[in-house]
């Protein structure tokens, strides 16, 4: 099963499928899950990981919201998609930096996922902004 295929099959998408945006939706969904899992693992650590937990949960929520907004294809709301992608990029950058400070394998994995998500959201953002400029 593929979220990209689901988006492509939407009646209002057709040949206008935005590959970068599809990738960003998929990675935002993955990033949300990885961040939530990292937050849970941080709770089990012996040291105080409260800041990492907070950062991961915030990032998970923003990534989830980004995926939901960006996968909607009925009508158009590109300005909101742009704002959401920008928020997701920033949340991922903050979470990546926080998780990179910790040696735990789950934090290192989360940092990598956040970097991938931020990169994909940046590529999608550029594509959506180009669509806005040409509209």
- In whole angstroms, how far apart are the ends? 32 Å
| CATH third-tier fold name | Substrate Binding Domain Of Dnak, Chain:A, Domain 2
Sequence stretches where pLDDT stays below 50 over 5 or more residues: none
Structural class: mainly alpha
| pLDDT averaged over residues | 91
Q: What would you call the shape?
A: elongated
- Strand and helix order: HHHHH
Residues in β-strands, percent: under 5%
Radius of gyration: 16 Å
Biggest sheet: strands, sense, closure?
none
CATH architecture: Up-down Bundle
Total domain count: 1
- The percent of residues in helical segments reads over 70%
The CATH class turns out to be Mainly Alpha
Number of strands: 0
How would you portray this structure in words?
By secondary structure, the protein is mainly alpha-helical. It has helices at residues 3-8, 19-43, 50-71, 78-100, 105-134. It has one domain: Substrate Binding Domain Of Dnak, Chain:A, Domain 2, CATH 1.20.1270. The chain contains five helices and no strands. Helix 3 (50-71) packs antiparallel against helix 4 (78-100) and helix 4 packs antiparallel against helix 5. It starts with a helix and ends with a helix. The model has no long low-confidence stretch (mean pLDDT 91).
Q: What's the arrangement of secondary structure elements?
A:
Elements: H1 3-8, H2 19-43, H3 50-71, H4 78-100, H5 105-134
Helix pairs in contact: 2-3, 2-5, 3-4, 4-5
Describe this structure in a few short sentences.
The protein is mostly helical and about 140 residues long. The protein is about 80% helix and about 0% strand.
């Amino acid at each position: 099963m593929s979220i990209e295929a689901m988006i492509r099959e939407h009646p209002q998408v057709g040949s206008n499928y935005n590959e970068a945006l599809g990738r960003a939706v998929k990675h935002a969904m993955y990033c949300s899950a990885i961040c939530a899992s990292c937050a849970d693992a941080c709770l089990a650590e012996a040291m105080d990981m409260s800041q990492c937990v907070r950062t991961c949960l915030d990032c998970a929520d923003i990534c989830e919201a980004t995926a939901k907004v960006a996968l909607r294809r009925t009508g158009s709301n590109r300005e909101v998609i742009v704002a959401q992608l920008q928020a997701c990029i920033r949340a991922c950058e903050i979470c990546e930096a926080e998780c990179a400070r910790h040696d735990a394998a789950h934090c290192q994995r989360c940092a990598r996922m956040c970097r991938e998500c931020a990169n994909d959201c940046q590529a999608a953002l550029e594509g959506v902004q180009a669509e806005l400029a040409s509209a």
